[in-house]
Design a protein that fits this description.
Blueprint: H1 8-12, H2 26-29, E1 61-71, H3 73-96, H4 105-119, E2 122-135, E3 141-157, H5 160-172, E4 183-204, E5 208-229, E6 244-260, E7 263-270, E8 275-278, E9 284-287, E10 290-299, E11 302-309, E12 331-339, E13 343-352, E14 360-367, E15 373-381, E16 387-396
Antiparallel strand pairs: 1-2, 1-16, 2-3, 3-4, 4-5, 5-6, 6-7, 7-10, 8-9, 10-11, 11-12, 12-13, 13-14, 14-15, 15-16
Helix pairs in contact: 3-4, 4-5
Coiled coil: 66-93
Signal peptide: 1-20
Protein name: Type IX secretion system membrane protein PorP/SprF
């Protein structure tokens, strides 16, 4: 019997092609996903105004990154294994009808208990990849980026009728797992973006020098919804067109950045044009505007950053009747970065004010010999077996 499709197929198999967190930058991921105020031009996808923040020797930066975050993966997958083993063992015992080892009510109850336990488990996953080229300048910094990320959810629904079916098998001596009607759903939305980023530094008498940047984006949204019972499940159906929909549109981000001595400030408004994708069942998932602000303090080789979402993020929150994908969230992030000669150590803590997502502790390590090549690695840990990782390669030309 194959039940892992509910989570592994729905969440993890989709991950490579396309996060409650926006952005895939591994440098920021190591510092609790912060960076709109503390970063430089290499993190321009987080705040396009950062294209004006660079060192005199910087010319061009090229990066390639990947990231994944999975929640409750261990308990969910262990429960799938336990349920699968229990059903297979029960079916074998019924079919064998060995007089010395007849199926008992305890055997039936064990299968029912496993199915009920599976009903209360789920897996939530998100992942993404990106590529970017950034050219910094005070007068006209610009860049190009391509990224794709997916958020996915898997859930299982126990059918009460299966309890009667299993108990009846003890009387009839007949049991076929294909008659079970407990079902699962794999639900995902992916966003692919192609962006042109631009920024310049301005000076106003009232505020002094500050930077403003924009990211003009072509977006493609894909939805994926696969419902099936154990009886009719076929892993060959995962990517059939009948389970997928897509739509495309244009969008825009706007960012501000200001440096005042050892302090820097950043504000970013992302996805200012609301977008929507409708799945095969006619249920809509919306990509909504978000606004974040941050302040960072730089002291010799240490940078600290505090970043807060100013509005609740309800992007891809399921509407009534739709399977759960994401929940409302509003993050606060505290990040630290220590710059050594050719290495960086990053720490962070992220908290959701809405308490829909567990707090994350992050740890990142970067190596950048002669500031020409960079490799950034990240680990993230949260409650309920939540675990994440990110990798990014970069080259300065």
């Amino acid at each position: 019997m194959k039940t892992k499709w509910i989570w592994v197929g729905g969440a993890m198999m989709l991950a490579p092609v396309a996060m409650a967190n926006v952005g895939i930058d591994a440098k920021s991921a190591g510092a609790a996903n912060s960076g709109i105020a503390s970063g430089d031009f290499t993190r321009a996808t987080l705040n396009p105004a950062l294209l004006t923040r660079f060192n005199d020797a910087d010319d061009v930066y090229v990066r390639l990154g990947a990231r994944a975050l999975v929640n409750e993966y261990k308990d969910a997958l262990d429960q799938v294994d336990d349920t699968q083993d229990a059903i297979d063992a029960f079916e074998d015992k019924i079919n064998a009808m060995d007089p010395n080892n007849l199926p008992t009510q305890e055997d039936a109850d064990a299968v029912i208990a496993e199915l009920k336990a599976l009903d209360s488990t789920y897996l939530e996953g998100s992942a993404g990849v990106d590529f970017g080229v950034f050219v910094p300048s005070k007068r006209f910094g610009f860049g190009f980026a391509a990224s794709t990320y997916v958020v996915a959810n898997g859930d299982f629904d126990f059918a009460e009728s299966d309890e009667a079916l299993i108990n009846e098998a003890l009387k009839t001596g007949r049991f076929d797992e294909n008659d079970l009607t407990s079902s699962g759903v794999a639900n995902a939305v992916g966003v692919t973006e192609f962006s042109v980023l631009m920024a310049t530094e301005l000076k106003l008498e009232s505020v002094g020098e500050f930077s403003i940047g924009t990211s003009l984006k072509y977006q493609r949204l894909d939805s994926y919804l696969y419902r099936a019972t154990i009886a009719n499940y076929d892993d060959g159906d995962y990517f059939d067109d009948e389970y997928m929909t897509d739509d495309s549109a244009f969008n825009v981000d706007i960012g501000l950045h200001k440096q005042v001595g050892d302090w820097s400030y950043g504000v970013v408004a992302r996805d200012l044009i609301s977008q929507s994708i409708t799945n095969i069942e006619g249920q809509s998932f919306d990509l909504e505007p978000t606004v974040s602000a941050a302040v960072a303090w730089h002291y010799t080789d240490l940078t600290t950053s505090v970043e807060v979402d100013l509005v609740k993020n309800e992007s891809f929150v399921a509407q009534e009747g739709a399977p759960v994908l994401l929940l409302p969230r509003q993050f606060a992030k505290l990040g630290l970065e220590y710059q050594a000669t050719h290495a960086q150590i990053r720490l962070g803590y992220q908290h959701d004010f809405k308490d829909n997502y567990s707090s994350l502790v992050t740890l990142g390590l970067g190596v950048s010999p002669w500031d020409a090549f960079s490799l950034d690695l990240v680990g993230q840990l949260g409650e309920d077996d939540e675990i994440g990782a990110a990798l990014q390669l970069g080259i300065k030309i």
